[in-house]
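Repro case for the chain-ordering regression, as requested:
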Amino acid sequence: MPEVNISGAATSLDERSKDLRRSVVRMLKGGGRGHLGASLSLIEILRVLYDDILNFNPKKPQWAERDRCILSKGHGCLALYALLADKGFFDDSELDRFCRKGGILGGHPEFSKVPGVEASTGSLGHGLSLGLGFALAARMDKRSSKVFVIQGDGESNEGSVWEAAMCASKHRLSNLVVMVDYNKNQSYGSTSQVQDLEPFADKWQSFGWAVKEIDGHDVGELKKNLESVPFNFEKPSAIICHTIKGKGVSYAEGNLEWHHKSNITDEQIESMYAEIEAAI
Amino acid sequence: MRRTCLDIVFELAKKDERIVFAGSDLGHGVLEDFKREIPERFFMEGISEANVVGMAAGMSLEGKIVYVNTIATFLTRRCFEQVVLDLCLHNVNVRLIGNGGGLVYAPLGPTHLATEDIAILRAIPNMTILSPADADEMTRLMPETVEHQGPIYIRLAKGYDPVVTDPSTPFKIGRAYPMREGKDALVITCGICLGPALEVADRLKKEGIGVSVLHMPTVKPIDVEAVVENASRVKAVVTMEEHTITGGLGSAVAEIMAEACFDRPIRFKRIGIPDIFPDEYGTQNSLMERFSITGENLEFVVKGLLQNAKG
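-- result from build under test --
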Protein backbone atom coordinates (compact mmCIF):
# COMPACT_ATOMS: atom_id res chain seq x y z
CA MET A 1 0.00 0.00 0.00
CA PRO A 2 1.20 3.55 -0.64
CA GLU A 3 2.18 5.38 2.47
CA VAL A 4 -0.50 7.81 3.53
CA ASN A 5 -0.52 10.54 6.04
CA ILE A 6 -4.04 11.83 6.11
CA SER A 7 -5.43 13.17 9.32
CA GLY A 8 -8.41 15.27 8.22
CA ALA A 9 -7.45 17.72 10.95
CA ALA A 10 -6.47 20.55 8.68
CA THR A 11 -9.46 20.28 6.39
CA SER A 12 -11.68 23.35 6.58
CA LEU A 13 -15.47 23.33 6.76
CA ASP A 14 -17.57 25.30 4.29
CA GLU A 15 -21.08 26.63 4.97
CA ARG A 16 -22.78 23.44 3.76
CA SER A 17 -20.74 21.33 6.15
CA LYS A 18 -21.48 23.78 8.94
CA ASP A 19 -25.22 23.76 8.20
CA LEU A 20 -25.37 20.00 8.40
CA ARG A 21 -23.53 20.14 11.71
CA ARG A 22 -26.06 22.69 12.96
CA SER A 23 -28.78 20.14 12.18
CA VAL A 24 -26.91 17.62 14.28
CA VAL A 25 -26.83 20.03 17.20
CA ARG A 26 -30.53 20.76 16.67
CA MET A 27 -31.24 17.05 17.13
CA LEU A 28 -29.03 16.88 20.22
CA LYS A 29 -31.11 19.70 21.65
CA GLY A 30 -34.33 17.89 20.75
CA GLY A 31 -33.30 14.60 22.30
CA GLY A 32 -30.98 15.89 24.99
CA ARG A 33 -28.57 13.16 23.99
CA GLY A 34 -26.77 11.55 21.07
CA HIS A 35 -23.61 10.18 19.56
CA LEU A 36 -22.02 13.50 18.64
CA GLY A 37 -18.44 12.49 17.89
CA ALA A 38 -19.34 9.53 15.70
CA SER A 39 -21.79 11.67 13.72
CA LEU A 40 -19.55 14.68 13.12
CA SER A 41 -16.81 12.50 11.65
CA LEU A 42 -19.31 11.27 9.08
CA ILE A 43 -20.79 14.50 7.78
CA GLU A 44 -18.64 14.97 4.69
CA ILE A 45 -18.82 11.29 3.70
CA LEU A 46 -22.61 11.39 3.70
CA ARG A 47 -22.79 14.89 2.29
CA VAL A 48 -20.85 13.98 -0.81
CA LEU A 49 -22.78 10.74 -1.26
CA TYR A 50 -26.17 12.44 -1.07
CA ASP A 51 -25.19 15.67 -2.85
CA ASP A 52 -23.16 14.24 -5.70
CA ILE A 53 -23.15 10.47 -6.00
CA LEU A 54 -26.32 8.61 -5.04
CA ASN A 55 -29.28 8.30 -7.38
CA PHE A 56 -32.44 8.58 -5.31
CA ASN A 57 -35.87 10.12 -5.24
CA PRO A 58 -37.07 11.36 -1.85
CA LYS A 59 -40.66 11.24 -3.09
CA LYS A 60 -40.19 7.56 -3.97
CA PRO A 61 -37.81 6.19 -1.34
CA GLN A 62 -38.31 2.63 -2.62
CA TRP A 63 -37.64 3.47 -6.29
CA ALA A 64 -36.06 0.23 -7.55
CA GLU A 65 -33.28 1.82 -9.59
CA ARG A 66 -31.95 3.95 -6.72
CA ASP A 67 -28.51 3.50 -5.24
CA ARG A 68 -28.54 2.11 -1.72
CA CYS A 69 -26.72 3.61 1.23
CA ILE A 70 -26.64 1.64 4.48
CA LEU A 71 -25.34 3.36 7.59
CA SER A 72 -23.90 0.27 9.22
CA LYS A 73 -22.55 2.31 12.10
CA GLY A 74 -26.10 3.18 13.07
CA HIS A 75 -25.03 5.25 16.06
CA GLY A 76 -23.85 7.88 13.59
CA CYS A 77 -27.49 8.43 12.61
CA LEU A 78 -27.51 12.14 13.50
CA ALA A 79 -25.46 12.74 10.36
CA LEU A 80 -27.73 10.55 8.24
CA TYR A 81 -30.89 12.20 9.55
CA ALA A 82 -29.40 15.64 8.79
CA LEU A 83 -28.89 14.62 5.14
CA LEU A 84 -32.22 12.83 4.74
CA ALA A 85 -34.11 15.83 6.14
CA ASP A 86 -32.10 18.14 3.94
CA LYS A 87 -33.04 16.08 0.88
CA GLY A 88 -36.72 16.06 1.80
CA PHE A 89 -37.23 12.42 2.77
CA PHE A 90 -39.16 13.74 5.78
CA ASP A 91 -40.07 17.08 7.30
CA ASP A 92 -37.18 18.68 9.12
CA SER A 93 -39.39 19.35 12.15
CA GLU A 94 -38.68 15.70 12.97
CA LEU A 95 -35.16 16.76 13.91
CA ASP A 96 -36.56 18.45 17.03
CA ARG A 97 -38.17 15.18 18.11
CA PHE A 98 -35.00 13.07 18.02
CA CYS A 99 -35.32 10.14 20.45
CA ARG A 100 -38.65 11.45 21.67
CA LYS A 101 -41.91 9.59 22.08
CA GLY A 102 -43.91 9.99 18.89
CA GLY A 103 -40.88 10.89 16.78
CA ILE A 104 -39.56 8.76 13.94
CA LEU A 105 -35.88 9.44 14.55
CA GLY A 106 -34.45 7.12 17.16
CA GLY A 107 -30.97 6.76 18.57
CA HIS A 108 -30.36 4.20 15.85
CA PRO A 109 -32.02 4.37 12.42
CA GLU A 110 -34.99 2.17 11.65
CA PHE A 111 -35.97 0.99 8.22
CA SER A 112 -39.66 0.76 9.06
CA LYS A 113 -39.88 4.27 10.50
CA VAL A 114 -37.65 6.61 8.52
CA PRO A 115 -38.08 7.13 4.77
CA GLY A 116 -34.67 6.82 3.13
CA VAL A 117 -33.22 4.49 5.75
CA GLU A 118 -32.41 1.31 3.86
CA ALA A 119 -31.90 -0.99 6.84
CA SER A 120 -32.27 -0.92 10.61
CA THR A 121 -28.82 -0.77 12.12
CA GLY A 122 -27.33 -0.09 15.50
CA SER A 123 -25.88 -3.40 16.49
CA LEU A 124 -22.55 -3.34 14.72
CA GLY A 125 -21.32 -5.70 12.02
CA HIS A 126 -24.61 -6.18 10.19
CA GLY A 127 -24.53 -3.60 7.40
CA LEU A 128 -21.97 -5.14 5.12
CA SER A 129 -23.80 -8.48 4.86
CA LEU A 130 -27.06 -6.65 4.23
CA GLY A 131 -25.35 -4.54 1.58
CA LEU A 132 -23.86 -7.65 0.05
CA GLY A 133 -27.38 -9.03 -0.26
CA PHE A 134 -28.52 -5.78 -1.90
CA ALA A 135 -25.61 -5.90 -4.33
CA LEU A 136 -26.23 -9.55 -5.26
CA ALA A 137 -29.93 -8.81 -5.77
CA ALA A 138 -29.03 -5.90 -8.05
CA ARG A 139 -26.86 -8.23 -10.09
CA MET A 140 -29.63 -10.85 -10.29
CA ASP A 141 -32.14 -8.21 -11.36
CA LYS A 142 -29.66 -6.63 -13.80
CA ARG A 143 -30.00 -3.24 -12.13
CA SER A 144 -27.15 -0.76 -12.23
CA SER A 145 -27.73 0.31 -8.62
CA LYS A 146 -24.65 0.74 -6.50
CA VAL A 147 -24.58 -0.13 -2.82
CA PHE A 148 -22.63 1.97 -0.32
CA VAL A 149 -22.06 0.71 3.20
CA ILE A 150 -20.79 3.19 5.78
CA GLN A 151 -18.94 1.37 8.47
CA GLY A 152 -17.21 2.38 11.68
CA ASP A 153 -13.63 1.66 12.55
CA GLY A 154 -14.55 0.14 15.90
CA GLU A 155 -17.24 -1.78 14.06
CA SER A 156 -14.48 -3.43 12.07
CA ASN A 157 -13.66 -5.45 15.20
CA GLU A 158 -16.70 -7.58 14.45
CA GLY A 159 -15.94 -10.92 12.81
CA SER A 160 -19.07 -10.75 10.66
CA VAL A 161 -17.52 -7.80 8.80
CA TRP A 162 -14.73 -10.03 7.57
CA GLU A 163 -17.07 -12.87 6.70
CA ALA A 164 -18.91 -10.41 4.47
CA ALA A 165 -15.65 -8.98 3.12
CA MET A 166 -14.53 -12.44 1.96
CA CYS A 167 -17.91 -13.15 0.44
CA ALA A 168 -18.08 -9.86 -1.48
CA SER A 169 -14.71 -10.39 -3.10
CA LYS A 170 -15.57 -13.98 -3.99
CA HIS A 171 -18.54 -12.62 -5.92
CA ARG A 172 -16.46 -9.81 -7.45
CA LEU A 173 -19.12 -7.33 -6.41
CA SER A 174 -17.90 -4.19 -8.09
CA ASN A 175 -21.28 -2.58 -7.34
CA LEU A 176 -20.50 -2.69 -3.62
CA VAL A 177 -18.53 0.05 -1.87
CA VAL A 178 -17.59 0.15 1.79
CA MET A 179 -16.57 3.48 3.30
CA VAL A 180 -14.91 3.20 6.68
CA ASP A 181 -15.16 6.21 8.94
CA TYR A 182 -11.69 5.83 10.39
CA ASN A 183 -11.82 8.39 13.18
CA LYS A 184 -9.34 6.32 15.24
CA ASN A 185 -11.51 6.23 18.33
CA GLN A 186 -14.05 3.82 19.66
CA SER A 187 -16.02 3.93 22.89
CA TYR A 188 -13.37 2.91 25.39
CA GLY A 189 -10.35 4.40 23.79
CA SER A 190 -8.35 4.76 20.62
CA THR A 191 -8.69 1.99 18.07
CA SER A 192 -4.94 1.42 18.30
CA GLN A 193 -5.27 0.62 21.99
CA VAL A 194 -8.59 -1.23 22.10
CA GLN A 195 -8.15 -3.44 19.05
CA ASP A 196 -5.62 -2.20 16.56
CA LEU A 197 -6.89 -2.39 12.99
CA GLU A 198 -3.55 -1.74 11.34
CA PRO A 199 -2.43 -2.51 8.76
CA PHE A 200 -6.03 -1.67 7.92
CA ALA A 201 -5.82 -0.96 4.19
CA ASP A 202 -3.70 -4.07 3.74
CA LYS A 203 -6.39 -6.12 5.43
CA TRP A 204 -9.05 -5.01 2.96
CA GLN A 205 -6.68 -5.50 0.08
CA SER A 206 -5.77 -8.99 1.21
CA PHE A 207 -9.48 -9.79 1.46
CA GLY A 208 -9.75 -9.02 -2.25
CA TRP A 209 -10.95 -5.43 -2.24
CA ALA A 210 -9.69 -2.48 -4.26
CA VAL A 211 -8.69 0.03 -1.60
CA LYS A 212 -8.09 3.78 -1.38
CA GLU A 213 -7.31 5.93 1.60
CA ILE A 214 -8.45 9.52 1.67
CA ASP A 215 -9.13 12.48 3.92
CA GLY A 216 -12.75 11.86 4.91
CA HIS A 217 -13.45 15.56 5.42
CA ASP A 218 -12.09 16.69 2.05
CA VAL A 219 -15.20 17.14 -0.07
CA GLY A 220 -13.25 17.33 -3.32
CA GLU A 221 -11.29 14.18 -2.60
CA LEU A 222 -14.40 12.30 -1.57
CA LYS A 223 -16.20 13.34 -4.73
CA LYS A 224 -13.31 12.50 -7.01
CA ASN A 225 -12.88 9.04 -5.53
CA LEU A 226 -16.55 8.22 -5.29
CA GLU A 227 -17.03 9.21 -8.92
CA SER A 228 -14.35 6.74 -9.88
CA VAL A 229 -15.80 3.63 -8.19
CA PRO A 230 -15.49 0.81 -8.85
CA PHE A 231 -11.73 1.13 -8.60
CA ASN A 232 -11.51 -2.28 -10.22
CA PHE A 233 -14.30 -3.86 -12.26
CA GLU A 234 -13.55 -7.27 -10.75
CA LYS A 235 -13.54 -6.20 -7.10
CA PRO A 236 -15.63 -4.47 -4.46
CA SER A 237 -14.23 -1.10 -3.43
CA ALA A 238 -13.14 0.01 0.04
CA ILE A 239 -12.50 3.64 0.87
CA ILE A 240 -10.81 4.20 4.17
CA CYS A 241 -11.81 7.71 5.16
CA HIS A 242 -9.44 9.25 7.67
CA THR A 243 -11.59 11.47 9.85
CA ILE A 244 -11.68 13.34 13.12
CA LYS A 245 -14.16 12.20 15.71
CA GLY A 246 -16.21 15.24 16.69
CA LYS A 247 -14.93 17.28 13.74
CA GLY A 248 -16.09 20.91 13.96
CA VAL A 249 -16.58 21.15 17.73
CA SER A 250 -13.06 21.62 19.05
CA TYR A 251 -13.52 20.23 22.54
CA ALA A 252 -15.30 17.14 21.18
CA GLU A 253 -12.57 16.39 18.65
CA GLY A 254 -10.93 13.11 19.60
CA ASN A 255 -12.52 13.43 23.04
CA LEU A 256 -13.93 10.10 24.24
CA GLU A 257 -16.29 11.96 26.59
CA TRP A 258 -18.23 13.04 23.52
CA HIS A 259 -18.60 9.62 21.91
CA HIS A 260 -22.07 9.59 23.38
CA LYS A 261 -23.48 12.32 25.57
CA SER A 262 -26.70 12.46 27.53
CA ASN A 263 -28.26 15.21 29.66
CA ILE A 264 -26.93 17.81 27.28
CA THR A 265 -27.58 21.30 28.64
CA ASP A 266 -28.75 24.43 26.80
CA GLU A 267 -25.36 25.98 27.52
CA GLN A 268 -23.62 23.08 25.83
CA ILE A 269 -25.94 23.42 22.84
CA GLU A 270 -25.15 27.14 22.53
CA SER A 271 -21.48 26.38 22.88
CA MET A 272 -21.63 23.82 20.07
CA TYR A 273 -23.37 26.28 17.76
CA ALA A 274 -20.67 28.82 18.53
CA GLU A 275 -17.94 26.28 17.89
CA ILE A 276 -19.40 25.40 14.50
CA GLU A 277 -19.73 29.08 13.61
CA ALA A 278 -16.10 29.68 14.48
CA ALA A 279 -14.75 26.53 12.85
CA ILE A 280 -12.50 27.17 9.91
CA MET B 1 -37.49 -35.10 5.13
CA ARG B 2 -34.43 -32.99 4.38
CA ARG B 3 -34.13 -34.35 0.87
CA THR B 4 -37.83 -33.75 0.26
CA CYS B 5 -37.59 -30.22 1.59
CA LEU B 6 -34.60 -29.23 -0.54
CA ASP B 7 -35.98 -30.92 -3.66
CA ILE B 8 -39.12 -28.82 -3.26
CA VAL B 9 -37.07 -25.65 -2.90
CA PHE B 10 -35.60 -26.44 -6.32
CA GLU B 11 -39.03 -27.19 -7.81
CA LEU B 12 -40.42 -23.95 -6.40
CA ALA B 13 -37.41 -21.99 -7.66
CA LYS B 14 -37.95 -23.28 -11.21
CA LYS B 15 -41.41 -21.73 -11.16
CA ASP B 16 -40.69 -18.56 -9.22
CA GLU B 17 -37.79 -16.27 -10.08
CA ARG B 18 -37.89 -14.64 -6.67
CA ILE B 19 -36.67 -17.82 -4.99
CA VAL B 20 -33.00 -18.03 -4.02
CA PHE B 21 -31.11 -20.78 -2.18
CA ALA B 22 -28.24 -20.08 0.22
CA GLY B 23 -26.22 -22.54 2.25
CA SER B 24 -23.09 -22.29 4.37
CA ASP B 25 -20.93 -25.33 3.68
CA LEU B 26 -23.34 -28.17 3.07
CA GLY B 27 -22.52 -31.73 2.14
CA HIS B 28 -20.95 -32.30 -1.23
CA GLY B 29 -23.49 -32.42 -4.04
CA VAL B 30 -26.43 -30.95 -2.11
CA LEU B 31 -28.87 -29.44 -4.62
CA GLU B 32 -26.43 -29.90 -7.49
CA ASP B 33 -29.35 -29.79 -9.94
CA PHE B 34 -30.30 -26.37 -8.61
CA LYS B 35 -26.70 -25.20 -8.91
CA ARG B 36 -26.41 -26.50 -12.45
CA GLU B 37 -29.74 -25.23 -13.74
CA ILE B 38 -30.11 -21.93 -11.86
CA PRO B 39 -26.56 -20.98 -10.82
CA GLU B 40 -27.39 -17.28 -10.49
CA ARG B 41 -29.76 -18.07 -7.63
CA PHE B 42 -27.65 -20.69 -5.85
CA PHE B 43 -25.25 -19.52 -3.13
CA MET B 44 -22.87 -21.65 -1.05
CA GLU B 45 -21.03 -19.10 1.06
CA GLY B 46 -18.85 -20.95 3.52
CA ILE B 47 -18.95 -21.41 7.25
CA SER B 48 -20.14 -17.91 8.00
CA GLU B 49 -23.72 -18.10 9.22
CA ALA B 50 -23.86 -14.49 10.41
CA ASN B 51 -22.96 -13.32 6.92
CA VAL B 52 -25.22 -15.79 5.15
CA VAL B 53 -28.25 -14.76 7.18
CA GLY B 54 -27.48 -11.05 6.79
CA MET B 55 -26.94 -11.50 3.07
CA ALA B 56 -30.24 -13.36 2.79
CA ALA B 57 -31.97 -10.51 4.61
CA GLY B 58 -30.47 -8.02 2.18
CA MET B 59 -31.67 -10.04 -0.81
CA SER B 60 -35.09 -10.38 0.72
CA LEU B 61 -35.36 -6.63 1.28
CA GLU B 62 -34.95 -6.45 -2.50
CA GLY B 63 -37.88 -8.80 -3.09
CA LYS B 64 -36.22 -12.22 -3.08
CA ILE B 65 -37.54 -15.20 -1.14
CA VAL B 66 -34.43 -16.79 0.28
CA TYR B 67 -34.25 -20.38 1.59
CA VAL B 68 -31.22 -20.73 3.86
CA ASN B 69 -30.08 -24.18 4.87
CA THR B 70 -27.54 -25.53 7.30
CA ILE B 71 -27.39 -27.47 10.56
CA ALA B 72 -30.07 -26.16 12.93
CA THR B 73 -27.73 -25.20 15.77
CA PHE B 74 -25.60 -23.01 13.51
CA LEU B 75 -28.68 -21.39 12.02
CA THR B 76 -30.13 -20.49 15.40
CA ARG B 77 -27.41 -20.20 18.04
CA ARG B 78 -24.47 -18.92 16.01
CA CYS B 79 -26.23 -16.09 14.24
CA PHE B 80 -29.03 -15.38 16.68
CA GLU B 81 -28.64 -11.62 16.45
CA GLN B 82 -28.77 -11.69 12.65
CA VAL B 83 -31.95 -13.75 12.96
CA VAL B 84 -33.45 -11.28 15.43
CA LEU B 85 -32.45 -8.04 13.74
CA ASP B 86 -31.82 -8.75 10.07
CA LEU B 87 -34.67 -11.20 9.62
CA CYS B 88 -37.30 -10.57 12.25
CA LEU B 89 -36.99 -6.83 12.83
CA HIS B 90 -37.12 -6.27 9.06
CA ASN B 91 -39.80 -8.98 8.78
CA VAL B 92 -38.25 -10.33 5.59
CA ASN B 93 -39.12 -13.40 3.57
CA VAL B 94 -36.22 -15.63 4.53
CA ARG B 95 -36.87 -19.29 5.28
CA LEU B 96 -34.38 -20.96 7.60
CA ILE B 97 -34.23 -24.70 7.03
CA GLY B 98 -32.55 -26.24 10.07
CA ASN B 99 -31.09 -29.72 9.62
CA GLY B 100 -31.29 -32.06 12.58
CA GLY B 101 -33.83 -30.44 14.85
CA GLY B 102 -33.74 -32.04 18.29
CA LEU B 103 -31.63 -35.12 18.93
CA VAL B 104 -30.98 -36.19 15.33
CA TYR B 105 -27.22 -35.71 15.56
CA ALA B 106 -26.97 -37.79 18.75
CA PRO B 107 -23.57 -39.30 17.88
CA LEU B 108 -22.07 -35.84 17.42
CA GLY B 109 -22.77 -34.50 20.90
CA PRO B 110 -24.22 -31.28 22.33
CA THR B 111 -22.52 -28.91 19.86
CA HIS B 112 -24.75 -30.30 17.12
CA LEU B 113 -27.95 -30.95 19.03
CA ALA B 114 -30.65 -28.34 18.39
CA THR B 115 -32.39 -28.75 21.70
CA GLU B 116 -33.52 -25.17 22.35
CA ASP B 117 -34.01 -23.84 18.82
CA ILE B 118 -37.77 -23.54 19.17
CA ALA B 119 -37.46 -21.81 22.54
CA ILE B 120 -35.07 -19.10 21.41
CA LEU B 121 -36.85 -18.44 18.12
CA ARG B 122 -40.26 -18.42 19.77
CA ALA B 123 -39.20 -15.34 21.72
CA ILE B 124 -38.69 -13.25 18.57
CA PRO B 125 -41.56 -11.20 17.12
CA ASN B 126 -42.51 -11.95 13.50
CA MET B 127 -40.90 -15.40 13.49
CA THR B 128 -42.95 -18.39 12.35
CA ILE B 129 -41.80 -21.84 13.50
CA LEU B 130 -42.74 -25.00 11.61
CA SER B 131 -41.99 -28.48 12.87
CA PRO B 132 -43.62 -31.05 10.57
CA ALA B 133 -43.95 -34.71 11.45
CA ASP B 134 -42.92 -36.43 8.23
CA ALA B 135 -41.80 -35.98 4.64
CA ASP B 136 -45.36 -36.03 3.32
CA GLU B 137 -46.33 -33.16 5.54
CA MET B 138 -43.18 -31.36 4.39
CA THR B 139 -44.40 -31.74 0.82
CA ARG B 140 -47.68 -30.06 1.69
CA LEU B 141 -46.02 -27.43 3.85
CA MET B 142 -43.31 -26.10 1.54
CA PRO B 143 -45.54 -24.47 -1.12
CA GLU B 144 -47.25 -22.56 1.70
CA THR B 145 -43.94 -20.95 2.63
CA VAL B 146 -43.61 -19.07 -0.66
CA GLU B 147 -46.22 -16.36 -0.21
CA HIS B 148 -46.07 -16.17 3.59
CA GLN B 149 -45.02 -12.70 4.78
CA GLY B 150 -42.12 -12.73 7.24
CA PRO B 151 -39.34 -15.10 8.31
CA ILE B 152 -39.94 -18.81 8.84
CA TYR B 153 -37.92 -21.47 10.63
CA ILE B 154 -38.46 -24.96 9.24
CA ARG B 155 -37.25 -27.62 11.66
CA LEU B 156 -36.13 -30.76 9.91
CA ALA B 157 -36.38 -34.13 11.64
CA LYS B 158 -34.33 -37.16 10.71
CA GLY B 159 -34.87 -38.55 7.24
CA TYR B 160 -37.18 -41.46 6.48
CA ASP B 161 -39.40 -41.04 9.52
CA PRO B 162 -42.62 -43.05 9.23
CA VAL B 163 -45.42 -41.17 7.54
CA VAL B 164 -48.15 -40.53 10.09
CA THR B 165 -49.93 -37.43 8.81
CA ASP B 166 -53.09 -37.42 6.77
CA PRO B 167 -52.42 -36.81 3.05
CA SER B 168 -55.95 -35.55 2.45
CA THR B 169 -55.63 -32.58 4.80
CA PRO B 170 -54.20 -29.45 3.21
CA PHE B 171 -51.45 -27.71 5.17
CA LYS B 172 -52.06 -24.25 6.52
CA ILE B 173 -49.49 -22.29 8.52
CA GLY B 174 -50.81 -21.53 12.00
CA ARG B 175 -53.29 -24.37 12.10
CA ALA B 176 -53.39 -27.27 14.56
CA TYR B 177 -54.45 -30.70 13.31
CA PRO B 178 -56.70 -32.91 15.46
CA MET B 179 -55.49 -36.46 14.69
CA ARG B 180 -57.45 -38.50 17.23
CA GLU B 181 -60.54 -37.77 19.30
CA GLY B 182 -60.92 -38.93 22.91
CA LYS B 183 -62.63 -37.54 25.97
CA ASP B 184 -60.16 -38.36 28.75
CA ALA B 185 -56.78 -36.92 27.85
CA LEU B 186 -55.22 -34.66 25.22
CA VAL B 187 -51.71 -35.17 23.84
CA ILE B 188 -50.19 -32.23 21.96
CA THR B 189 -47.10 -32.81 19.81
CA CYS B 190 -44.90 -31.27 17.16
CA GLY B 191 -42.39 -32.91 14.85
CA ILE B 192 -41.86 -36.64 14.98
CA CYS B 193 -43.49 -37.04 18.40
CA LEU B 194 -46.80 -37.32 16.56
CA GLY B 195 -46.01 -40.95 15.65
CA PRO B 196 -45.71 -42.35 19.19
CA ALA B 197 -48.62 -40.18 20.32
CA LEU B 198 -50.91 -41.78 17.75
CA GLU B 199 -49.75 -45.25 18.76
CA VAL B 200 -50.49 -44.51 22.41
CA ALA B 201 -53.92 -43.10 21.58
CA ASP B 202 -54.81 -46.18 19.57
CA ARG B 203 -53.49 -48.53 22.24
CA LEU B 204 -55.31 -46.80 25.11
CA LYS B 205 -58.54 -46.69 23.17
CA LYS B 206 -58.59 -50.48 23.38
CA GLU B 207 -58.26 -50.12 27.15
CA GLY B 208 -61.20 -47.77 27.24
CA ILE B 209 -59.19 -44.58 27.69
CA GLY B 210 -60.03 -41.85 25.21
CA VAL B 211 -56.99 -39.82 24.08
CA SER B 212 -57.18 -36.87 21.72
CA VAL B 213 -54.06 -36.05 19.74
CA LEU B 214 -53.46 -32.52 18.50
CA HIS B 215 -50.59 -32.12 16.06
CA MET B 216 -49.00 -28.66 16.06
CA PRO B 217 -46.68 -28.40 13.06
CA THR B 218 -46.83 -24.62 13.55
CA VAL B 219 -45.39 -23.96 16.99
CA LYS B 220 -45.51 -20.22 16.39
CA PRO B 221 -47.96 -18.59 15.90
CA ILE B 222 -49.62 -21.31 17.93
CA ASP B 223 -53.24 -22.19 17.34
CA VAL B 224 -54.53 -20.92 20.70
CA GLU B 225 -58.15 -21.65 19.95
CA ALA B 226 -57.45 -25.30 19.14
CA VAL B 227 -55.48 -25.77 22.36
CA VAL B 228 -58.17 -24.21 24.55
CA GLU B 229 -61.03 -25.97 22.81
CA ASN B 230 -59.42 -29.41 22.89
CA ALA B 231 -58.07 -29.00 26.43
CA SER B 232 -61.44 -27.89 27.76
CA ARG B 233 -62.94 -31.29 26.94
CA VAL B 234 -60.47 -33.52 28.83
CA LYS B 235 -59.14 -34.18 32.32
CA ALA B 236 -55.44 -34.18 31.47
CA VAL B 237 -53.14 -32.59 28.89
CA VAL B 238 -49.65 -33.86 28.00
CA THR B 239 -47.22 -32.24 25.58
CA MET B 240 -44.42 -34.22 23.98
CA GLU B 241 -41.57 -32.70 22.02
CA GLU B 242 -38.01 -33.48 20.95
CA HIS B 243 -36.81 -30.27 22.59
CA THR B 244 -36.07 -28.86 26.02
CA ILE B 245 -39.16 -28.48 28.18
CA THR B 246 -38.04 -24.89 28.77
CA GLY B 247 -39.61 -22.58 26.24
CA GLY B 248 -40.79 -24.96 23.56
CA LEU B 249 -44.16 -26.41 22.62
CA GLY B 250 -44.86 -27.52 26.18
CA SER B 251 -44.21 -24.05 27.51
CA ALA B 252 -46.37 -22.48 24.82
CA VAL B 253 -49.25 -24.80 25.71
CA ALA B 254 -48.71 -24.21 29.43
CA GLU B 255 -48.93 -20.46 28.89
CA ILE B 256 -52.19 -20.83 27.02
CA MET B 257 -53.68 -23.16 29.60
CA ALA B 258 -52.63 -20.97 32.51
CA GLU B 259 -54.39 -17.99 30.96
CA ALA B 260 -57.44 -19.91 29.77
CA CYS B 261 -59.01 -19.87 33.26
CA PHE B 262 -60.77 -23.20 32.83
CA ASP B 263 -63.63 -23.60 35.25
CA ARG B 264 -62.20 -26.91 36.50
CA PRO B 265 -58.64 -28.11 37.06
CA ILE B 266 -56.91 -29.91 34.20
CA ARG B 267 -53.85 -32.01 34.93
CA PHE B 268 -50.83 -31.06 32.86
CA LYS B 269 -47.39 -32.46 32.11
CA ARG B 270 -44.60 -31.66 29.65
CA ILE B 271 -42.50 -34.44 28.17
CA GLY B 272 -39.22 -33.33 26.62
CA ILE B 273 -35.55 -32.84 27.34
CA PRO B 274 -34.96 -31.74 30.93
CA ASP B 275 -32.83 -28.70 31.72
CA ILE B 276 -29.49 -30.40 31.07
CA PHE B 277 -27.17 -30.77 28.10
CA PRO B 278 -27.52 -34.19 26.48
CA ASP B 279 -24.93 -36.30 28.23
CA GLU B 280 -24.78 -39.42 26.08
CA TYR B 281 -23.99 -40.38 22.49
CA GLY B 282 -25.66 -43.21 20.64
CA THR B 283 -28.64 -42.75 18.35
CA GLN B 284 -31.53 -40.33 18.19
CA ASN B 285 -33.75 -43.08 19.56
CA SER B 286 -31.41 -43.95 22.41
CA LEU B 287 -31.28 -40.29 23.48
CA MET B 288 -35.06 -40.05 23.19
CA GLU B 289 -35.23 -43.02 25.56
CA ARG B 290 -32.66 -41.43 27.86
CA PHE B 291 -35.02 -38.46 28.24
CA SER B 292 -38.19 -40.57 28.25
CA ILE B 293 -39.53 -38.97 25.09
CA THR B 294 -41.19 -42.24 24.18
CA GLY B 295 -44.63 -43.71 23.66
CA GLU B 296 -44.11 -45.90 26.71
CA ASN B 297 -43.50 -42.89 28.95
CA LEU B 298 -46.34 -40.96 27.35
CA GLU B 299 -48.71 -43.80 28.18
CA PHE B 300 -47.38 -43.91 31.74
CA VAL B 301 -47.80 -40.14 32.15
CA VAL B 302 -51.31 -40.08 30.66
CA LYS B 303 -52.46 -42.89 32.90
CA GLY B 304 -50.83 -41.30 35.93
CA LEU B 305 -52.50 -37.94 35.35
CA LEU B 306 -55.87 -39.57 34.79
CA GLN B 307 -55.41 -41.62 37.95
CA ASN B 308 -54.69 -38.46 39.92
CA ALA B 309 -57.62 -36.71 38.27
CA LYS B 310 -59.95 -39.37 39.61
CA GLY B 311 -58.53 -38.94 43.08
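Ordering looks correct now. Chain B has a mean pLDDT of 96.
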